[in-house]
Specification:
This protein is an all-alpha fold. The chain has one domain (2-101). Helix content is 83%, strand content 0%. The chain has helices at 2-29, 34-56, 64-90, 93-100, 103-114, 121-136. α3 (64-90) runs antiparallel to α4 (93-100). It starts with a helix and ends with a helix. The relative contact order is 0.07. Keywords: Membrane, Transmembrane, Transmembrane helix. This is EamA family transporter.
Length: 137
């Protein structure tokens, strides 16, 4: 059951990630700034996830030692998202999204070659398919 649930969540995730450029570009072309687009996106996400968390009984409490890490990761995420929207305004969205989503490939390669993470056939296949897909662009 967990496998099916995981596959369904992955499908929803990939669908929403795939539609984000469409909606973002639509708003950018309508005259919204990148900052406004991200503010609306994160505002809606904050409300939805807060409601979901409350209904699930999740605690949002952070330890003092974790606050700085969460703040730093949040800032990095903000810079990443803002940069991607600026890229959408300057190059084709498909190219910008492809470049943006190559970071898991870079992380996999760094982990394998610098941190000696075990190389599996599936990971190597995924790396190859990522490079092949990027080459098709």
């Amino acid at each position: 059951m967990n496998r099916i649930k995981g596959i369904l969540y992955a499908a929803v995730s990939s669908s929403t990630f795939g539609l984000a450029p469409f909606f973002s570009l639509t708003l950018l072309l309508a005259g919204f700034s990148a900052f406004e687009v991200l503010s609306y996106r994160w505002g809606v996400a904050t409300i939805a996830l807060t409601l979901f968390g409350w209904c699930s009984g999740c605690s949002f409490r952070l330890e003092k030692k974790d606050f700085l890490v969460v703040l730093l990761l949040s800032l990095l995420r903000a810079v990443t998202s803002f940069s991607l929207l600026i890229a959408y305004q300057n190059i084709a969205t498909g190219v910008a999204s492809t470049i943006h989503f190559m970071y898991p490939l870079a992380v996999s390669l760094v982990m394998m070659y610098f941190f000696q993470e075990k190389k599996s056939l599936w990971v190597m296949f995924a790396v190859f398919m990522s490079l092949f897909g990027a080459a098709l662009l």
